Amino acid sequence: MTGVCMAANDQGRQSQGLDHATLWQLLERAPVPLLLTQGDDKRVVLLNRQFRQRIGYRADEIPDADHWWPLAYPEDEERERLAALWRQRLEQAARGSGEVEPLEAPIRCKDGETRIFLVHAVCHGELILSLFVELTALRQAQSQLAESHRTYRALFERSADGILLLDGERFIDCNAAAAELLGYPDRHQLLQRHPAEISPPRQPDGRASWELAVEWIRQVRETGTCRFEWVHLTHSGKPTWLEVQLTMIPIGGREVVHTVWRDINERIQARQELEYRASHDALTGLYNRDRLQKLLREADALHRRHGTRYALILLDIDHFKSVNDRFGHAVGDSVLHDLGERVREQLRETDRLGRWGGEEFLILAPETTQQGALELAERIRQHIEHDEFPEAGRVTASFGVAASEPELSLDTLMVRADRAMYAAKCQGRNRVSAQHGSSASAS
């Protein structure tokens, strides 16, 4: 996996300090099938253990998309339809946030069985990470509901997923698994609760739970089914993540909402971990260069739309190579981590700090003039200089400051900060410098 990641973006990722071995272990041990592809030909670079076990194919059997599609979809018409739909969703994701609209489809597994999966995916450059959630058991259960009420009750009661029936604004039935998911002693206590009582006032996106619930109910009445992730409250008031599947079904001459709950706390945790690793430096825990660049673009856009000022502070540890040479890379890594913490101690809540690369750090200071940034940089410089680092002793840093100006591009601003920092280096290090036009001054 290390080789794959290096091939995707070796130099950039090395500069961010990503731990490829840990990332490999995380993907390999994920509790759901994962498939990682790269390039226009969708070259397969990773199949995790769950993919090999549940879908059956190895990487050498499906080296790219041209091999995967005929194996997974032997029927020409179905294969062409799904391939076209998947390409369309990939193109939409590439133009948007990178998240691919999930696609539910039957997949012919290596053992000859056809199983239904909901395929989630996220794009990042040439890389596409796909996650396969098997729905076969759920779909089979839904089909059996129409055949026999007795079979339905057996499945209803024995299902490991939580199942509830919602009629208007009240639950009329649920199984033991639903009560267990929310920590209720028995299903009767859960049935006594109003649906609004088992959700927090707001969902993680900030929207009111009742408002979102109304939207999902309206959608399931219009389309017949919908699926989404939702934070519920357990019997003790603790939030818990559940995947919710809503389906309209006829019961007793009226339509009710058939609700299926599935615990996805591990999935959410894994996703959040992946998102964290994608935006944070593994060594220091600070934002990485990719995340900083996004924040810089956002700050620059606010500046251009509303005139909101911002300033940049670029700092580089003085003589860092000698620290590694004298004390070893373990001590050098400790200096990087501890210096990041010391810088963070001096920042405001609104300031953003990250590792720009190597021994360079970048501070984005919103609503800050150049004078304000100079004062902040000087305060940080003194804080670093006056406190010795364990094993490494006294460490200093050189600072370059630049502030936004009308008609000044973000690229030019970065160049100014970089030149100012190197001016501080040239003027003796352990100082703060700011560039004014083509000249720089240091203090």
Note the topology.
Blueprint: H1 2-16, H2 20-28, E1 34-38, E2 43-47, H3 49-54, H4 65-72, H5 76-95, E3 99-108, E4 114-124, E5 127-134, H6 136-147, H7 149-158, E6 162-167, E7 170-174, H8 176-181, H9 187-191, H10 209-223, E8 225-233, E9 239-251, E10 254-263, H11 265-279, H12 289-306, E11 310-317, H13 320-327, H14 329-345, E12 352-357, E13 360-366, H15 370-386, E14 397-403, H16 410-426, E15 432-436, E16 439-442
Parallel strand pairs: 14-15
Antiparallel strand pairs: 1-2, 1-5, 3-4, 4-5, 6-7, 6-10, 8-9, 9-10, 11-13, 11-14, 12-13, 15-16
Q: How would you describe this protein?
A:
The chain is of the alpha+beta class. It is 45% helix and 27% strand. The chain is built from 16 helices and 16 strands. The chain has helices at 2-16, 20-28, 49-54, 65-72, 76-95, 136-147, 149-158, 176-181, 187-191, 209-223, 265-279, 289-306, 320-327, 329-345, 370-386, 410-426; strands at residues 34-38, 43-47, 99-108, 114-124, 127-134, 162-167, 170-174, 225-233, 239-251, 254-263, 310-317, 352-357, 360-366, 397-403, 432-436, 439-442. A six-stranded mixed β-sheet has the order 12-13-11-14-15-16, sandwiched between helices. A five-stranded antiparallel β-sheet has the order 2-1-5-4-3, sandwiched between helices. A hairpin with a 5-residue loop joins strand 3 and strand 4 (114-124). Helix 6 packs antiparallel against helix 7. The two termini are 47 Å apart.
